[in-house]
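hey so u asked for the seq, here:
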Amino acid sequence: MDIRQLKTFVEVARVRSFSKAAESLFLTQPTVSNHVQSLEKEFDTILINRLSKGLTLTDAGQLLYQNALDIINTYETARYQLDSYKGKVEGHLEISASSVPRKHLLPILIHSFLEKYPDVSFSISDKDSRQVIEEILIGDTDFGFVGALYKTRNLAYIPVMEDNLVLISPEDFFPDHENLMSISLDMIVDYPFIFREEGSGTRESVRLSMESKGFNLERLKTVAWIEDVEAIKRMVALGVGLSFISEKDIDCGDIVEGRRYKALRLDDLDLSRKFYLVHHKSRQLSPIGESFKSSVKSLV
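ran it, structure tokens below
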């Protein structure tokens, strides 16, 4: 079995496309097809269903994919040790992150890591917390940064950053309240709301905090579900409704068509939270992955 063929198969399985795999691996599409066909011939089984609507893994392909990740990481470990002996370390890490750690934490972590390992490269994907977890579990990414804990025995979490959520409001919704003043939960229940999408750590934190006070999030009138925090802030400033964002994303100098939003605290809700580095507990990390995890732990 050729390790290059195995890497090609893993990339095809990850992106669900021969052409996209060829592009990311800098190979021709016929070469990618030949690599997969060689593996199918070697194992005497079909690994990929080639459908008109896209590619899917067969049961055998799924089994090989899970084992291939460990095989490749073991190979990379040996290569890393040899390269370290020769004074050279290189590799690539796939990271998925929700919006707050992607903007406010990852740049610092990556800058620090690249100072020590300049030949390492990164791919950073923008995902909500639930999508990050899903990608970790199926092996599509090495690490994730999330703002909520999703309980499963296959995940390991490392706390990396603390945060607080705040309520943002149009300037004229609470005219007697200045920025970062406290209001009560019962003052907001009749206003329209803009929420992050289902699966976001922000939404999950708000839901859990409200439920701890016996309040169901569904009681609030939601007029929009939006992924992008900047779009949420603009809509709030224009008077569409209230929303919750990280205090790290507050910029009350934002002006939208002459209007600003303001940030408020809810005095009867605990909206503090933590962000976590998450990885698959039972899957062997690549040596670069182990180094990145150690680097993160040393900085937080």
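The first helix runs from residue 3 to 15. The domain at 1-88 is CATH 1.10.10.10 (Arc Repressor Mutant, subunit A).
lmk if thats what u needed
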